[in-house]
Design a protein that fits this description.
Elements lengths: L1 H12 L13 E11 L2 E14 L2 E13 L2 E13 L4 E12 L4 E11 L4 E12 L2 E11 L5 E11 L1
Antiparallel strand pairs: 1-2, 2-3, 3-4, 4-5, 5-6, 6-7, 7-8, 8-9
Length: 160
């Protein structure tokens, strides 16, 4: 009887515990990525953290600088997703855009850079400031250098 009790204690003490280990996708910190076409720089991406997850790359605390005709636009955001197959960068969370030549400032929660079309788009609410005028509305489309831009719905104008 004692022998059976001892055997059961040994068996209970030897049960195998399975531990699940969660593996993060490969990543990098403090990263700079650039894209060029025909020897011309198209964009530069600076981010605090990069996580590669299949075909998409998740970005944290990022700055995207767009280059077009010797002009630059600077975009900052909390997070983003780089999709190299579709040539897009989705930016979200406190998105702010500044374009110095036209003195434009844009704020929104989501913005997408389409590299094939060289356009910035969003369906979110936006606020755009330029030379004493504040425009707001929902939805936005612009070229990389802001030479052409459009607020698509509910445009409101306020003068400073």
């Amino acid at each position: 009887m004692k022998w059976l009790l001892l055997l059961s204690l040994v068996l209970v003490g030897c049960t195998k515990e399975e531990k699940k280990v969660q593996v993060s996708p490969p990543g990098f910190s403090k990263t700079v990525l650039t894209s060029s076409k025909g020897g011309e720089k198209v964009w530069k991406l600076i981010c605090d953290n990069v996580q590669i997850d299949g075909k998409k790359t998740n970005l944290t605390k990022l700055t995207l600088i767009l280059y077009k005709d010797k002009r630059t636009s600077k975009i900052t955001a909390d997070n983003g997703i780089l999709d190299q197959n579709n040539e897009t960068i989705e930016l979200f969370g406190n998105v702010e855009v500044s374009e110095d030549a036209e003195k434009i400032k844009l704020q929104t929660e989501r913005l997408t850079w389409n590299g094939k079309e060289k356009r910035l788009t969003t369906e979110s609410e936006i606020t755009l400031q330029k030379e004493g005028i504040i425009l707001s509305g929902r939805g936005f489309v612009a070229d990389a250098d802001f030479s052409s831009m459009k607020i698509t719905d509910g445009v409101r104008v306020k003068f400073k």
